[in-house]
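Morning - magnesium ion inputs below, output right after.
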Amino acid sequence: MKLVSFSTGSDERVGVVDVEREVVRDVTGLLPAGAGLLGLVEEWAELAPALNGDAPELALADVRLLAPIPRPRRNIFCVGKNYRDHVVEFGRSGYDSPDRSEAMPEHPVVFSKATTSVNGPFDDIDPHHDVTSELDYEAELGVIIGTGGRGITRDDAHAHVWGYTIINDFTARDLQRTHKQWLIGKSLDTHCPMGPYAVTADEIDDVTALMVESRVNGEPRQSAPVKDLIFDIPELIARLSAGITLLPGDIIATGTPAGVGIGFDPPRFMASGDVVEVSITGLGAQRNQVA
Ligand code: MG
């Protein structure tokens, strides 16, 4: 099932998308008032059966798609340096201050993006010219947690995955380097385009086969299968939950493949007017312009 948060004006509604027919079923009225897509994920076992009820259909073209989870309960967990070729390009770039290493990480590199960075899948990206001049994109698979828990084992990990979405871990590289810790450089407002869909795990036969891809102004930049992850999804869930309770609706951005702007020499940063597109097999595509 492909779920969306959408708006027809100033409201925020929940829908189920039929991609082939290009329509969205507005299921908001079938859910508790104010639940939103996040509330639906949190109470999935209880609420999902209600989605089969009668609901009005709207043309996809007539609605504005929002990030599937526009206001996560807490920061998005992110994994850095999780594709081999990207570790090398990042180490060479000199932006991994003070590390500057092309060595593969021995443990997952985990940071987070503030909830206020979340942006719609087709909305403009704020260039924040007052604080950064080095804008870069990172195409990533986002994992949405269903059942939470602590001490989740690798074997049990997939039972805790509610579904998947697309994340652009947009980054202000100069701030990432200057502040050493990555939070500020990763968290500027609008720098986390998400969606368009939140796709339930049962719709994906083999998540490791999905291709993560990006294009800038139509030019292909990144393309890699999820199976290239250094630390795979079960490992990330096991390591994160070893001492941190994962909650329903938590989002894990699993890392980006090679081909980001700082992978080029000289770096190719994004400028106002540039368009970045991120797509993943079966999860749709997002398209954001730098304002
Ligand atoms: Mg990233």
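Note: The mean pLDDT is 97.

O.
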